[in-house]
Write a structure and sequence with these properties.
Layout: H1 2-22, H2 34-48, H3 53-59, H4 64-75, H5 85-94, E1 99-100, H6 101-107, H7 113-125, E2 129-132, E3 139-142, H8 145-156, H9 159-170, H10 175-182, H11 186-198, E4 203-205, E5 214-216, H12 230-252, H13 278-282, H14 284-303
Antiparallel strand pairs: 1-3, 2-3, 4-5
Length: 333
């Protein structure tokens, strides 16, 4: 029971974060496929951890056959097998000068109508498709090259930093593996990787026994307060937190011997204007950043002229601070 409550509470906090990200900076990111993607990612992660499909189906409260059909339905369009429904609907709209909603629903009659409607809404929200009219006269058309040009420019803001973070935290990657991870076009992705290599942010390796080159990074730096690349910082913070909690859960099974090396601590301070320790509390993050940054520099200087052994350990440390005003009188922060 406690574990179920914990999972529900974490899901709640995660959905709050997703909602805030989806509306950040006045943007409205499409969310139609999020629930389906969460299900598929959970399925893949359970399989990676060695959980059989029969057991996974039971964990979701589904029969095995229903569970397998759901995976197949969400992985690809029933009408256009081998492609996701999102891609198939976009391709269909792009192939027409304009098309009514009824025509789209008829074209994808083999798919769930609610899902098709959700994809159409998603494509309009992401401005890849433009809707005009209403009711029975509602029609869709693909966005023009001019409309897509401004959209691509905004969508690419911070992409280079985000790919850098992915390669640093989860690499090495081949182009194919990173394309699968990000759902980006491999040709376009390779262009970004070349830019990262040229900038000295990531490195390319060409092993003799490996058919495809791999990309890896030995460092990741996103300047404080940067207007571009904050997505990489958010991803890095969140992944560090998830890895820390996961590591702590694994170490809990092996006893307390690693308690001082794996885990985290949360501290809460109640202060107010004029409190004698107010500045000390607010300056804690700056102080910790300075101390840990100095330690990182000393480690990097020592490692600079040495080749890292294969069995080295990457120690990830995350420090966060968030003032939360209480009541109606605290407008300072």
């Amino acid at each position: 029971m406690t574990l179920e409550l914990l999972i529900h509470a974490i899901v709640r906090q995660t959905t709050l974060l997703i909602a805030q990200l989806a509306t950040s900076g006045g943007a409205r990111a499409p969310l139609a496929q999020v629930a389906n993607q969460v299900f598929l990612d959970l399925v893949r992660e359970l399989e990676r951890q060695g959980v059989s499909r029969k057991v996974s189906a039971d964990m979701f409260g589904l029969g095995l056959r229903t569970y397998q059909r759901k995976i197949q339905r969400l992985s690809e369009s029933s009408t256009d097998q081998g492609r996701s429904l999102w891609v198939a609907v976009l391709d269909f709209v792009e192939s027409q000068v304009s098309v009514s909603r009824a025509d789209v629903l008829n074209r994808f009659a083999g798919d769930d109508e609610v899902q098709v409607r959700g994809v159409l809404h998603d494509l309009c929200e992401s401005r890849l498709v433009v809707a005009t009219g209403s009711g029975a006269s509602l029609v869709y058309r693909a966005a023009s090259e001019e409309e897509l040009g401004s959209l691509r420019h905004r969508a690419e803001d911070g992409l280079e930093e985000f790919l850098w973070a992915l390669v640093y935290r989860e690499g090495p990657f081949t182009v194919a593996a990173l394309a699968e991870r990000t759902q980006l076009d491999p040709t376009e992705l390779e262009r970004w990787l070349v830019r990262l290599v040229d900038a000295g942010r990531i490195e390319r390796s060409d092993p003799v026994l490996q058919a495809a080159p791999t990309y890896h990074a030995s460092s990741l730096v996103v300047p404080l307060g940067s207007a571009v690349g904050w997505e990489a910082a958010v991803f890095d913070h969140f992944q560090a937190m998830v890895n820390t909690i996961g590591g702590r859960l694994r170490s809990a099974r092996t006893g307390p011997k690693l308690a001082d090396r794996i885990g985290g601590s949360t501290y809460t301070f109640d202060v107010w204007p004029g409190h004698p320790l107010e500045d000390d509390v607010y300056d804690s993050l700056k102080t910790l950043r300075g101390a840990i940054g100095d330690l990182r520099e000393r480690v990097e200087r020592f490692n600079a002229d040495r080749e890292l052994p294969e069995n080295h350990t990457k120690v990830v440390m995350y420090v966060g601070q968030c003032p939360i005003p209480q009541g109606n009188g605290n407008e300072d922060d």
